[in-house]
Every structure is written in structure tokens, then in C-alpha cells.
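1st attempt posting a full record on here, be nice pls
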Amino acid sequence: MVWQGCNTDGNVNDSKFNAPMPWIGIYIAAASLLCSIGMGADAFSAIRFSKFWFPCKFFPLNATSLTIIAVATKLSMDLNTSMPRCHDQLSKLSSTVLMCTVMSNFMPSIGTMENREIFSNVIALGILVITLVVNVCIQMATGVIFVFWTEHAVVMFIMILLLLFLCFSALTVPTTKHYLEFKYSKKYEIAVRESSKETDIPVFKKLREDVLKYWTMAHTSCPQFVVGRSVTCTASGALCLFSAAILIEAWLRTYLMPWSFRFCSGQSDYKWSITLILIAQTIAVGVGTIGPAFRWFLAIRIRCPKEWRKSFKDEFKIEKYWIQRLVEWRDCPIGLSIHSWHCRKLVHDTRNLVADLCIRMQISIVLVCKTVRIVSTYFIHLLFIFSFWFDELRRKVKQNNIISNNESGSESSQPNVNQDLSRFVLYLEGEDNLVDLMAKRNCNATDCWIRKGRKNQPKYLLQILEKHMSSTGLKGAETFDSNQIPSLGYGKAPNCWALPVVTLTTIAVSLPNIDRTSINCLMRSVTEALSFIRLIDQNLDEKEELINIRRAADAAWLGVDLYQKWLGVDIRKMAVQAKGPKEVIQELADIAKSKLMEYDQKTMAACLKDTPSKLPVKVLAANCMYRIAQTILQNQKTTYEEIMSVKLFEELSVMIADILAACLTNIPCLIHMECISSIIEEREARVCRAIFALGLTEKILKLLDQKALPCSDTNKMICVDDWHVFRKQDELHFSPSSDYETEAFSSVDICLSID
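the predicted structure (as C-alpha cells):
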């Protein structure tokens, strides 16, 4: 009897053991392509948004990327598969070079990690790198790798250096974060104080000056940017470029100088898939070199002097933040309960010895990195001479144009802006020469984001505001919901900005005999407005009391926008079948009431303990529809029969425009809240969104700035219910009987005090 897996002689049947190897090769090639896609996405995003320190957004150092890298570098880990041909040996080298490329790309991503995350990820990467180096050395000793020995040795040395650069750069991240957070709090107080003094300038101009300051602080303190402009990241870019050059050299020697190598005959177990692996990994190395090479070149370009200096004493100065954490660790007491005096002394001395060794290694690594930067600057210096001449010529031409423009009556405020922004640049020790450059580029980046926002300004929202907004005040925001309408079964639920807008739009779309073009314009206007309203509601609802109400607005609008249905009711069919606008509004009120009563009969007893804002979304939407529909019917009670649908549609449009305008008065508050973030990792992205929103709402802000609002302090009227309170106070203040009632209450008070 022949057991499964054995041949007729009783030995293991290994004839099919290597059959899956080509498919494993496809798996390796796919992982390599994933690496190239991730690094390519980071490069594309950086070039698109002019972030030339190339932050890691799509391919950072984490468990997922490490797993992909482990698969992509399997060839370097394979100890006993024969690699006889030139493609096979090149794929071994490309796999090792790919690891260097990925490590260099990972450098900025350590800035966004917490301490525990940095520790775990760096340890995992170190284990992977050490395993790869050991396996390559074993293959060189056993003869699996029999060519490109020098290239492999140099690449492994670079790999070890990159690992050290990354590990010791990670030690500085907590220190630099703490230092920049402290400086940010001081600069932020200055920015707020200066902003509070500027009261006589237009809203848009004031906001632009504010976001310039916030962006400068947020961008220059961005953890990835801080790591990206460090000397270790610059040196890692140079080493990455060098490792890619080694792979190119091996390619060229293989195909242009074939006589210099002696390859073997035969075929690898990976067969045809080895070509796919080699192509995929070469592409990944090429794409992945873009980011590190740009970081290196930009650092050299910034620091390259116009005249070569003979002394570089200042360049080799070691800044305190490089070793501060290690010094603090060495000087702090050991938190171990050891009773023996000799053991305590031994542990303490051992800790000090390790700490001193790490400090010396850190200093050595920083010196090596600075040496790499200086050597790179020396060799690139001559290439930049022409560039300096060209920049000088362009600067003189620009100054002449500015002078001629000033003589003709125009002003150029850009230099003043840059000079002011330099006060808000957050920088580390040794980065003094980068302050003016970062201030200038931050101003350019802010203008770029504002221009992008201007190109996408809400066209239909502007149309409804310009056409339908009330000429005096914003009465629609105050009168859409009457306090005289009683609530059904529970207290009045608070309103968010979105729900009344959605409800009024639903009523307007339901009216009969309305031109389809007018309905489409209204729907598009509300769709554009809701993107702003959601942000305003979300940012202003700090206690998260209106979550269900916001969800009710989103659910109701989804049905109206996509299916022309409100809570399952076909509103366009209702408009066609209705005799007049009164019947439509009455029917909507009845449907809303039935929804409320249906809920009341089934589960009202279980929800008596809940506040009205925590009721189900359909109930909240129905409640809002009932109150607004009844308010419209009540306001038009006497003259309703004479009002045509078109006129009512116009009145509803005015009411919607007033609510939108009242809501959009919170845009300055929204922009400031977006700029305020306690998390340093999220600060830059939030300020960037605020700048884009500023450009997006430029015309809206100028339109509202020209509007005579009913209250000079709109900061106290941030919610839609605040406008109702203002209207109620306004009515009490201007009521004819208010003076009499006040006197009566005063007399009562006097009598009570006498008694």
C-alpha cells in the first residue's frame, strides 16, 4: 500500500513541492506593486498640494505596511531556492534595495505616532530588517547569492544606517512635540490678542489675516514637516538615492557588460514570475525614490550658500533636542523596588552606561547626517550658481515692477504679510535660517488654497441669497416656527439649522403648478447649503445634544433629493393631485400628525424619560413638518385663498434664504473653530480645511457683510433657536402694553417691599 505523499519506494514524493512557486512569485510582485502604489500616491499628493517634504499619508509605518513589505521582500528571505540566471540574481538585489527605499519613505510618518506606537512599529521594523540582513549574509555564504556581492554589502550597510536614523529620530519626536506645543500656545495667544483688536476691517479680510497666522503656526509645527526637514531625514534621502543608483548600476552592468559576470544555466523555481517580480520591484524603487530624493534636494537647495564658506563649525553643532530625552532618562531615578544596595547600584550604573552609549551613538548619527548634508551641498554647490544668478535677476525685475506699480497708485502688501508671518513661524534650534523661507511659502500656500476655494464657490447658494434674502433683517429665520403652535404629547424639540431648511424645501417642492426649473434651482441651492450647514451644526453642537435632529434632517433630505419622497410619501404626486397649495400643506400637516400619533400610541410610554431631542429621527422630522406647516397655515389664515402657488413658493424661498443667511453668519465662528485643535497631528489638516472654506465662502461673507443684520452681536445667535429668542425679546420690547405691564409689576414690587 502506498501512503499519500510517498512514492512506490516509500520516500517522500516531492515532485510537486515547487509547483506553486510561480504563483507565490505573483503574490510577491503584487505586494511590490502595492508598495509602489502607496508610495506613488504619497508622491502624487505631495506634488499636487506642493508639500515637498512628502508626508506619508497613504503608506505610513504601521502593521499593514510592514506586512506588505515582508511579503514583497520574500526573495531576500528565501535561503535555499536556487537563483541561477541574471534576472534571478537581480531580483535578490532589487528586493534588498526596496527595503531601503521603503524605510526612507517611512521617516516622516514617525512624527504622527504616539510613544507606544512608535516603540512597537520601530521594534517590528528592526526585527524585519535584522532578519533580512542575516538571511542575505547566509545566502552570500552558502552561494545562493553568487554575484553583486559588493552591491549587497553596500545596500545592507545603508539599510542598517537607515534603521539607526529612524530609531534615533523617533527618540526626538516627544521632545520636539512638547517644545512646539509650548511655543504654539504662546503664539496663539498673540494671534488671538491681535485679532480682537482688529474690529474695523471687513470680515473676509480679517479672517484671511487670521488664517494666515493659524496656518503658519499649524504648518511649521506639523510633526511630519518637523521630521521631514530634519537632518536625519535629509541624510536618509541621500542614502535612498544612493541605493537606487546601485540598483541602476547593477542593471546596466548586467546588460551592457555581460562578459563581466558568469551566471549559471537552469531555471529558478519561480520560473516566469521572477521577471514580474523584478519589474514590479524596480518600479517600486523608482517611484519610492521620488519623495526621499525631493527631501534631500530641497534641504540642499535651501542650505546651499551663494558663496562657499571655509568654516562649517556651526553646521556640526549638536542641538539639545537630539539628546534631551536620553539625558532625562539617564538622570531620572529608577522606579524599581530593590532592597539590596549592591543590586541597586549595579542597575543604576548599568542604566547610566547604556544611556551614555546611546547619547554617544545619537551624537555620532547626527554628525554623520550633517556630514552627508555638507558633502552633498559641496558637490551640488556648483550646479546652483546659475540658479542663484537667475533668482537674483528675477528678484530685481520683480522689485522694479513693484516700484512702478506703487508709482502708478497700486499697493503691494505681500512683503508686509511675509514679514508679519515670520513672527508666527515655529522652529527648532538650528533652524533660524529657515524662518523667512517658511513664512513666504506658507503665505503662498494659503493664497493657493483660497484660490482653489474660489473656483468652487456655491453658485446656486449665492443665487438664492442674492435673489430671495430679505431686504431688511432676516425675518424668515425668526418666523418659520410659531410659539403658538402646541406640541403633540411632549415638549418642543430644539432645532438644528438643517431640519427647518429641509422641511421648508419639502413644502416648497410639494406645491402645485411650480416651474420645474425653479424647483431644480431651489434643490441645488439647498444641496450646496447643506454641506456648510452640516459643518456648522457639527462644530457648534459641542455637547452633542442635536445628533438625532441632524440625523433626522439628513434622512429626510435623502428621500426628498433622490426619490422626491418625504418619510415615504411621494410629494411630487401630491403636488399633481392637489387642488391648491392649502390642500398640500394641510395634507403634509395631517401626515406629520399621524406619524406622531402612531409613534405616540405604540412606544410613547417607553420614551417619556427621554428628552425631545433624543426621539427617533422620523418623529423629529414629522414634528418639525407639523409645526412649520401649521405656522404657514396660521400666518395665511385670512388671505390664503387669494395667494397663488407661485407667490407662496417665493415666500418660502425667502424664508429659506433668510434661514440660510442666518446660519451662514456663523462661518467666521466655524473657521476659527476649525483652526483651534488641541491635537497637534490634526491641526494642519483642520486649518487647511478652514482656508479652503474661506475661499469657498468669500462672496457669501462679503454679501453678509453688506447686510444690515438685526443684531450687532451675531456671536450670541449661533443657533436657530437663538433667533426665535431674539424675536420674542424684540416683540416684548416694542409691545404697546409693555410699559404699562412694567409699571404694574413695579408697583406690586413696591407694595410687597413696604409690607
